[in-house]
Amino acid sequence: MMLRNMTVFWLHGEELMFGGNAVHPVQQRIPQMKMMKVHIPFTFKLHETSNSSYSDLRCTISSQVPYTLQAFWGVSIRELHHFLWKAWSSFQTAVKDDSLLRGHYQHCGLTLHETSHTEKTIQMFMPEGKLDLGTPPRHCYPLVIFLIRDTPENSTLHPDETVALVNVVHIRDNVCTLPTNILAQYLKQANGQLSSLKQLYLATGNALSYQDDACSDDASQRAVVLDNGGGSLNTSQEQLCVVCQYYPLSRALLPCRHTCICASCFGKLETCPMCRSPIKSYFCVRNEDYLADCALGLEKTGASAKRQAFSQWIQNSITEFLGLH
């Protein structure tokens, strides 16, 4: 027996085409970014006060290792980024010789040599004189604060060990009236790797800072799950997926950085459910051990749906062949 009208389909580039003029796009598999876990021994926070200014800037710092703090005012943006990509040995030499960013800042600020400690509030102020930051877009950062790990001579660190946290701070002024805030934070590892720390945005709208998890924006396109000994998302009060409201959220979407969905719902989406931007990649912010239960449920419902679809296809084909429609 041969059917009169056979449905023929084939793949053409990125599209799945069926006999006739209908074209149905094939959903592309969204790639997962590679993960690595990095321990951060430092924390750095600005005090959220309306009085933060060049004459009174307060921050809170903690460290699990001995370190050197060096602050610089009016730092050349170009020269800072050039220096950040240098080897870890260059950082060590610059701190030892007191030549860190020499010639590329307008005022040298606070310098401290500290042992490990819990959170401590530090007050900073710019020495006498004004900064020439240039007209927007500016060519200098108002303030850059280095937290550099102190290591004994001839000591060996693991290549993935964190050796420096570099904090770029914007300070509100008459030209740029944005509130005082941390513009950027850079993580330096002993192997020379440089990562730009970014916030993740939870479904509640709250920001998840690097103290819990963060992603890197480096050339190798790796996601870095950063750990400073604090809590994780896997708690008794963990948030649920905004789509199904059943499984815990476990995936951070890129490039928008919204952390709002579970692995089960992820495969059904092409855009972020929070901001509707296209999903280009993702990484996991917690384990997904719940997937076993999810797969079992999908297997049961999927098998039933396939049987129904096949039965309906047979019925429609026979009806069309006999001309009964």
TrEMBL record:
Keywords, in A-Z order: Metal-binding, Zinc, Zinc-finger
Keyword Zinc found: yes
Transmembrane spans: none
CDD domains for the chain: mRING-HC-C3HC5_CGRF1
GO biological process: negative regulation of cell growth
Span of domain RING-type: 241-276
GO MF terms, alphabetically ordered: zinc ion binding
Domain of life where this protein originates: Eukaryota
One Pfam family here: zf-C3HC4_3
Protein name, as recorded: RING-type domain-containing protein
Organism: Acyrthosiphon pisum
